[in-house]
Amino acid sequence: MTTTEFLDLRLRELLDRVAAPEPAPGGGSVLALVAALAAGILAMAARASADFWEDAGGVAAQAEMLRARAAPLAQVDAETYERALAVRDDHAELDEERRDWEIGRAFAAAAEPPLQIARVAADIAELAQEVASRADQRLRPDALAAAALASAVARACAELVAVNLTATEDDPRVREAHSHAEAAQRAAATAFAA
User: Fold this and answer.
1) What is the torsion angle, in degrees rounded to the nearest 10, for the CA atoms of residue 65, residue 149, residue 75 and residue 17?
2) From CA 78, how far away is CA 27, in angstroms rounded?
3) Right CATH number for 26-193 from 1.20.120.680, 3.20.20.70, 3.30.43.10, 3.75.10.10?
4) Preceding omega of 114 cis (within 30 degrees of 0)
5) How many Å apart are CA 60 and CA 108, to the nearest integer?
6) 93 Rama sector, left if φ>0, alpha if ψ -120 to 50, beta otherwise
7) What is the tens place of the pLDDT at every residue in 15-61?
8) Which of 73, 79, 124, 148 is deepest in the core (most CB within 10 A)?
9) What φ, ψ does residue 137 adopt, rounded to 5°?
10) 14-50 burial, b for 16+ CB within 10 Å, e for fewer?
11) Which CA distances in Å does 106 have to 60, 81, 102, 110?
12) Over its length of 194 residues, how does the chain's per-residue pLDDT go in tens digits?
């Protein structure tokens, strides 16, 4: 299935695929979609505030760029994780050292999409902080929802990165993912406190 097909599924079909007893689409794919939805909420709140917020159009454009970054990662995550599982299951004939190396390499590749999702989620949370303080205050709860969602996405993605890199000691991507999660959490906390 291509990225376009994945993103063009009817909502009910998407929900059914996520609930199916298949490993993908799984958590990473869902997190990418949640991040895209959070960015969409911010775009809406900014556009709805255009009458009195001079920067609303630019902020809406930023939110749309973040949404465009997040959404395709749903399919990328599913495909990369499926490839990692296939490597794990299909290399029984290799000697143990080579098999472990192949599996480690496949799961290291599978860590990339959640790392990218964590990165974009941190950016979404930071933008949500601005929208929460500057947009029409009737839309503040929407911006706060986006901030909370983005923070949760970044945190969960950091865990996915760590799990996928279990075989790779001291991989800097684990620290990077946790750094994005911490940044998202700080931005969300600031948005709620303002």
Assistant:
1) -140
2) 9
3) 1.20.120.680
4) no
5) 34
6) alpha
7) 999 999 988 889 999 999 999 999 999 999 999 999 999 999 999 99
8) 124
9) -65, -15
10) beebbeeeeebbebbbbbbbbbbbbbbbbbbbbbbbe
11) 37, 8, 6, 6
12) 444 577 889 999 999 999 999 888 899 999 999 999 999 999 999 999 999 999 999 999 999 999 999 999 999 999 999 999 999 888 677 788 888 888 899 999 999 999 999 999 999 999 999 999 999 999 999 999 999 999 999 999 999 999 999 877 789 999 999 999 999 999 999 999 98
Q: Is the pTM of this model over 0.90?
A: yes
Token couple for 17: 């695929």
Contact of 132 with 147, CB cutoff 8 Å = yes
